[in-house]
Amino acid sequence: MKGTNLGEFEELVMLTVGILHPNAYGVGIKQEILNQTKRKVTLSTIHSALHRLENKGLLNSHFGESTGIRGGKRKKYFTITAYGARCLREAQEIRQSMYQTIPSFVLDQA
Amino acid sequence: MSKKPSNNRSPAWATKFLHWFCKGELIEEIEGDILEEYHEFKDKKKRWIANLFYIYSVFTFLRPFAVKKIALTTTQNNRIMYTNYLKVAFRNVRKDRVNSFISIAGLILAFTSSMLIYRVVQHETNYDTFHEKSDQIYRMVLEAKRDDSWKTYPMVGPPVGPAIQEYYPEIKKAVRLRYTPTRIFSTSDNEKQFFEEKIFYTDPSIFEIFTYPFLMGNPNSALSKNTNVVITHEVAQKYFGSADPMGQTLLLDNDIPFIVSGVLAPIPENTHFKFDFLLPFEAFKVPPGYPVTLDDFGWTSFHTYVLLEKHANPNSLVEKFSDFAGTHFDEERIKRLKYGLQPLRDIYFGDVKNENIASGNKSYVIILSSIGVLLLLLAAFNFTNISAAKSLSRAKETGLRKTLGSTKTALIHRYLSEPLIINIIAVVLSLLITPYLLIQVNNIFNISISWDRGYWFELGAIFLGIGIIIGILSGLYPAFIMSSFKPASILRGSYSRSKGGSNLQKILVTVQYAITSFLLIGSFIISSQVDFLQKQNLGFESDELLLLRIPGEELNAKYLTIKNLMNSNSRVKGISVGGGRMDGENGNVPIMAEGQLEAKNLPIDAVKEDFFSTIGTPVLAGREFSFQHPSDSIDGVIINREAARYFDWSPEEAIGKKITVGNLVDGHIIGVVENFHNTSLHTAINPLVICYPAGLLEDIYIRVAPGNASELIEGLRLSWNEIAPDIPFDFVFMNQHLQSLYNKDIQFSKMVKLFAILTIFISILGLYGLVSLISEQRLKEISIRKVFGAPFAQLILSLSKSFFVLIIIANIIAWPFAYLISKSWISEFAYRININLMFFVSALMITLLVSGITLFIQSRKVAILSPAKTLKHE
Q1: Is the whole model's pTM more than 0.80, yes or no?
Q2: Contact assignment for B32 to A71 by CB distance below 8 Å
Q3: Could you tell me the domains of chain A?
Q4: pLDDT per residue over B679-729, tens digit each?
Q5: Among partner residues B5, B29, B61, which is closest to A68 by beta-carbon distance?
Q6: Which residues of B touch A27 (CB under 8 A)?
Q7: Nearest in space to B500 (alpha carbons), one of B491, B511, B508, B492
Q8: How far apart are alpha carbons B699 and B731 in whole angstroms?
């Protein structure tokens, strides 16, 4: 992957992982995204994004406790790495600075 | 996987599937998450929905990040060897591009053609099989004894259907259909108005017997009221566009309102009777002037179909039919008439023809399927020849492999892999091309054969099988020959073509050319026969003859007005009325002529004044019906030349002879006309007796002067609208109409021609490849000949001589087969061409010429090479 560019959905997942810290795992992230953005996404989409982000070094993961409802399977918790936090901040700053250079009347028409 | 808590009852197979494809390191979190969601879902929704959702979730994980790498990670020797075979095979395919292309192209041509033929044949042989109960449905037929032979009629009397259903418990249901030609339907506001041809009055049981799914409406009540009408989807769109057709009114003949109570889903193309409108049988009224009632068993004009009980035996039922016939026919008639049953699936290819019923020709289907098989054979031979010739150039590779310890089996596998790959590639490509070609074929031949996804699998399975068989067979010969060579002698370079190998090659080339010539001769004969039919002298002038069809009552009432108006157009040269469009079977009536001892059944026809001058048939003696002799319309009879011959009179003698035509006319002969074809040319000219019409006729014949047709038609249409604004102007040119009688023959002849051209092409491709390989192998020999001073022509001859001999032998082998088979096909026609030597010689010339060019091009390449270069080679 070139640079630290985050995809729109990747950024969304990163933010959610941050919100849920330190209890971010697959189903929880899906719920939170639904609550925050009303977007219905499939589990596989979330998992695929999580693994991509982990491979880029933006997320860390570790196994947690197992519960009966999960058929004895452990949850995998994701946390944001220092590098991940920097990327997120950079993305946020770039957006902010670009947002501010939009002439105000363009935004006002909405 | 551990069977854990009791509330974990997600579909086990989906879990197994997940374990099968998912990467080991991801499985725990993924399965855990899916299960968690599943349980949450299960509490809120029904179980099966949750299960479905679980399965769906599993499938969504079929993504690159989660799926195991399926690679050949094992280090087994065999695996590596087979991958190597594949690799070498692909390399060979790419290295020898020309020959690989020829092989694949030849195979694709053959595969696509046979796939198309397969679909065409499948379409033809599956008429009416879409009805769910098609094996229990039979058509009632009436067999009548005429002279000494029995003739079968596809229709019975109107009371037969209901009565026979009561009479025999084996008959579950019966339905009557009454065909009604040419009526006008219009919307209630008269916005849309059309002439309709396919109208049937029928019983509601039609929907219980046949499978006609409804788009709208209820099959049980759709025909229950006698003001209802059921229409097809196409008709609904034609009259109502996108508006809701249900409950709308359609006017029949601008008079009787019918309310649309049902719309049928599109009906498959391959059904023997096609309809657009179904009207309730109760709405049917006996046309005025018919001397019959709906209780008359003798009025045999009703198609009647019965649905038998599941295990009923139709044969034993037919044997009992004489009891039923006894309830309404007297003894005398039972001797001449009997009922029978014809299975629904046999109707399409059956002998009983009828104008509103589609019929097929079994011999066309058989010939087409044989062509398909021959094409495949041809491609297989081609392929075998090329791969056998090519394998020689791979002798060194074989020697090396053997030295390095390859076993015989391994070598055989190696030689089979290449033809298999080529065949599989060819099948896959053909499968991709075929649906597209089918559209073209439909356009070219004016047919409508459907294609849906199911055919991928069906054709894919069949043709992959065929491809694999061809691949194995064509690889077997080189595989066994090469694997038995001694490595030492191969590597020393002293291998040679085995005697057996070149014999096999010769046989294959001969058979291939025999097939090609056979198809060529066949296509020549078929297309000249079809041309001959179209150019046959019909006994009347079919060019510039216009046909107008209007309902009989209208014609009767308005004929004189129409005639005067049409005559005022300067381009109209003549106008009259005939009893049909020169396309149907005529009714037979007992004719008693002067000097005869008993009445003979002969075909009759009816025409009005000036008919023969209008259609251009010469009157040999006497006169035709004319306005100058009004009394002729009461007692005048015209016969054709064949009838005069039948009664043993010369045309002049015939004039004035007394003649009785059934109970229609009791009069005398006023004229004899030249023979003319009033039926299709599949049947010969019969004696014909022509009277002045007593009943209603509906076909106006108009002779027009040559010139701009559309201008003329516009002129006629304008005059038409003045006199009959409520009747559509429904015209057709006679020659176009006659053309439609031979559509099947024309289509067939075109198809055979196309496939014959394809076979030449495939043969030439094969020859091209073969010669290129052989001349390469004989490179040294040719060079040495050249060094010793052989002239160019001699070199070419030495390379191509043996092929010419084979081609001539092949042609001579093909001749008797071609002769016998074309002869039997051609005997189906009443008017046929002579099969002469020209067809055979021209096939020989064409094969020789085209092969000669190919041979020349290929051998020239070798013959012009400098011997210094080629001999230096080793």
Answers
A1: no
A2: yes
A3: 8-107 (1.10.10.10)
A4: 777 777 888 899 888 777 878 898 988 877 778 888 888 877 777 776 777
A5: B5
A6: 33, 36-37
A7: B508
A8: 10
